[in-house]
Amino acid sequence: MHTEVNPESPFGGPSVPKRPAAGLLGRDSELDTITGLFRAALAGRAVSAVVAGEFGMGKSAVLTTAGELAEAAGFTVALATASRLETHLSGGVGRQLIEGLTHAPAIPGSPRPRTPHVTEILPDHPPRTGHEQTEALDAFFHAVRHAAEQGPVFLGIDNIHLADPWSMRCLAYIRHRVEHLPVLVVLTSLIGHLQTGEVALLEMSGCTPATILLRGLGTRHVADFLRVPPGRFAEECREVTGGNPFLLGALARRLVPGMEPDTVGSAMIGEVLRVRMHEYTAAPKMLEAVAILGEDASFDLLAQLAGVDESTALEAIDTMVRVHLLTNSHRPALTYRFVRNSVLADMPLTTRAVTQARAARLLHDAGAAPERVGAHLLEATAIRIPWAVDVLRLAARHSVVEGDPELSVRFLSRALEERLSERKRMAILLQLAHAEFHCDPDSAPARVREAIDHIDDRETAAFVATAMILSLCCGPDARLAINSAGQFAARLDAGGPDAVWPLLCMTYLAEAGSRLGPPPDFRDFERQWAPLNDPAAQQSRSGLLALDTVRSGESSANAVRHFGEALSGEQPELFEQPYFFTLATAALADEPALTDKLCQVLDTKRLPWDFHVPKGALATLARGIALQAGGDLVRASVHYESLVRQFDERGATSRCPIAVLCAARLIEVSVDLGRHDVATALLGKIDFAATQALFTHNYLLYARGRLRAATGEPELGYEDLRGCGRRLEHHGMRFPGFAPWRAHAARTALALGRTDAAARLAEEDLDAAGRWGAPRILGGALTTAGLVRETGLGEEAERLLTKAVDVLGGSTAKLALAEALTELGVFQARHGQAEKAIGTLRMAAQSSKHCGARPLARRAAEALRDARTSLTTAKDNEHGLTKQEYRVALMASQGLTNREIAEALHLTRRTVELHLSGAYRKLGITGRTELSSALGRSQRVDAD
């Protein structure tokens, strides 16, 4: 290297050279710091630096390069390397330094005086007496001073933390004695290494050394190191190694094209770390435990897995955190993924598998999530773990819920490695068929056929296939379940109807709920029940009879009777089926005793078959539907809201029929509560197109129609309500209580001025409600008919509204009663019956407020205020007649007939008659002929 004479140097040596541009990758600033100290040393002042970093961060390379630069700058360079295996050799590092000073080439033009041999300075054995120690320390100092008198000296000691105690003492001895000599001391040390000897690092480096902390290489330098273009691959390599050069080199040697960096490990790196940790108590065991547990590495589990007490475990963790092998966090983890992979790669396969199995058991006993336990069981291969099967199945179920069917396949494939009964193997194969169906649909049928081959018990086979139908509830999943059930049924049919009836029952329901058109003919299906005498079979038959009665819409009493028989035993599977549950809860909403029984049947401690549905959700939803039917809107909304949150967390709101039904119910209740913003926000979160294959999409259409009609979009609301009706009619659903779309479509048609359509819908609704006969549904239909009839037939409208109040008065349907009272009160006020209207509207306002129906309560309160105002105004005239009574009486006294008065005032003749009767009573007369004289002055004033 070309150098220039520096006239300012007291030794006339060369000036500080410029460092070659190539240098070390990413270490420019660190080397600049060291070379920046050259000037102070060349000026005759001792300086020092400490280069610290993690294992493999390049401390030795930085020191070597710094020594080369120092030599080029005219320094006498002496380098020494401390070694873990030579720590016990007294004076080992000191000897290397003396040898470096002894053999250093002389500066050109300077005489080369004799330097004492290393054995003269440091004897072969450590000095024992105080006099011997002093002589040895002085000899070391004189050697360094002798070299410094000839020119600047660079003393570099690599891995000072591993140096022998006597060498450390030598360095500490000379440190304050060379302060005015041209000496530069550079030490490298493992970061966080605890000094356990008698000499501290600052005693060897001085009180104010330049501290250089080596960090990992950046992405650009990693790309240069690996000789790859900058980009995602280089960034991933930097992330898994922290940019540590030593780890990067090991990674590069293990990588092959197409391999992901975060999956690579090096057994050699694992061995080096294991050996280096042996000097610390229990550290190797804790290192392996951290690698095995990974993200599950809580402190207590680490200690148990390593087989050490907590005090020892804490000491080992503390040491590894200080040397940056573990992260400094509440949950210990290896700093880099490559290090973890390397520690695992160093473990023998059997040892690793057994340890993973132990970790899985510890996590399971600690109540960890099944998927976390399953992650360790996947690594515990070739080991029999009988208790793991159920955990793996549960983990697979959760993985499907989370949208990761590939992981589910791995869990179930691992479960199949265990020794299994034919029954359990068949169940796992069916579960695997479902998981594979999401990854590779063509492979699922083969799994189903394989499962069928493992049938060794007909009852068990029917149960497992039934469970599959209950688990797979929508879309393509439902078709897979139905097709699989068909294959099972064909295999089981030879055993007679008792062997196949549960499976046929659930298949029938699944078919009915998944079709957009009419369901299978119940009569054909019912013939298969004739020879059955089993009580459970008869109980299921009652349930299906109830369902058929509901669909036909013929008799509420018959449906309730059949449902009661179906609920007479403990058969929850029938009521867990989404299609059956949806219609059963709608029909039983007005039957408190049966609703309670239904909730008891559904409120089981086990998980629902359908993995979309949270535990206890069906009972909660059934209670919410009953509360809504009874008019307790606030409590119903609380039930629905809690469920919708859980369905949202599972990503099932637009996929699961029960979730769609719950969301639709909450939208409807929110409309009645006046919480339109809540209803709109919820509707916006639902993938409407994804729900169209579900039967419960009908209810969602109905709920959206109600929301649109209530928020200023009557035309769109009307179309939604009619769309709901068309789908239900196409499905053969005549039950008017599932989604009372006709009633709201009729009211919306009235608002749009389509009186003929409104009248037709109201008449159809009244006929259907009459056939069904339940008070809540009949009362609602009567209310709607009264509203429609008011436009032309006042007498009939009042009769219908009054009947609605009478029918609902003895029922539990408080909201429906509040609606009927409100409409009747508004009618009475509009037709001059202010006194009656006030009483009716007062009850309506109280009832609607109690239900929480704010829009209805507001309407009733406003109508009540208007009626009171009308009555007050009417009492201001001298006869005590209402305004309308006075006008009708005046026109009658002038000779107009009742028909002519009705036409002129746009009233019905019945209403005219009522006003005249009220006027006669208040005026104290008996007929029309006495009106003129009774009205007296008022008539003459009006005539004028």
UniProtKB/TrEMBL annotation:
GO biological process: regulation of DNA-templated transcription
UniProt protein name: LuxR family transcriptional regulator
Gene Ontology molecular function terms on file: DNA binding
Record-linked Gene3D superfamilies: Winged helix-like DNA-binding domain superfamily/Winged helix DNA-binding domain
Lineage: Bacteria, Bacillati, Actinomycetota, Actinomycetes, Pseudonocardiales
Region (Disordered): 1-23
UniProt source species: Amycolatopsis lurida NRRL 2430
Residue ranges constituting the HTH luxR-type domain according to the UniProt record: 874-939
Record SUPFAM superfamilies: C-terminal effector domain of the bipartite response regulators, P-loop containing nucleoside triphosphate hydrolases
Keyword Amino-acid biosynthesis: no
InterPro entries: AAA_16 (IPR041664), P-loop_NTPase (IPR027417), Sig_transdc_resp-reg_C-effctor (IPR016032), Tscrpt_reg_LuxR_C (IPR000792), WH-like_DNA-bd_sf (IPR036388)
Alphabetical UniProt keywords: DNA-binding, Transcription, Transcription regulation
